[in-house]
Amino acid sequence: MKVVIIEDEFFSAEKLSLQLHQIDASIEVVAILPSVESGLKWFRTNPEPDLIFSDIQLEDKESFELFRQLPIESPIIYTTAYSQYAIQAFKQNSIDYLLKPIDVDELRAALKKYENQTYRLLKKGLRFSMEKPKEDFKERFLVKKGNSLAVIRTADIAYFKSEQKLSFLLTFDNHKYIIESTLDQITEQVDPKRFNRISRSRLISLDCIRKIHPHFNGRLKLELQPPEEEEVFVSRERVQIFKDWLNS
């Protein structure tokens, strides 16, 4: 396995390299990159590695900037001393988020997660190639707009919700529309990688999540964009599914 480490602290990078070699002697660290600038230069002239370990706060910018500028498809395991970046990290190709100092058992578990995900993707790819093309999901919804109708792109939808036996969608620019479909129907029509049913009354997009807070009785409290007047929760029975979705 070929690995790239994006880390501006020399001793942290060396320690991670040693831990990886202790877990699996076949792992080869092909580059240690201390900045976004060095990362851009390296990835533009070298083949992508099997896996990337990336700190977030580098010597010039946050590593997210590197992945915004280049379409890097390698999975990423983030290694950082800060927990507040977790949501943004999981919106990248992240398969795990390790807090420093890195525990070797957590590192081993993250590598196992990578191996399991790679196996699933390979298996899925073989299945799709032998069976049928990937399923198409709805790209737009027809909504009521006053006395007329309008078309809203799915990419512009922050979340869906039901109130008083009616279904609504809310766009990122904070417009609210009535739609005729039920939440059960919509859940089957949208891409499950982008939307998650957090409760019986709400289906949200990944990009509308701003903050996640642990809450009483095992639930999670969410801050969304656009914001809601009432508090928004992930129901207790859906919390693990929601976490797995973020980490998929």
UniProtKB/TrEMBL annotation:
It holds the Pfam family Response_reg. Residues 2-115 form the Response regulatory domain. The modification 4-aspartylphosphate is found at residue 55. GO terms for molecular function: DNA binding; phosphorelay response regulator activity. The keyword Nucleotidyltransferase does not apply. Keywords: Phosphoprotein. Residues 141-248 form the HTH LytTR-type domain. The keyword Glycosyltransferase does not apply. This is Response regulator transcription factor. It comes from Rhodocytophaga rosea.
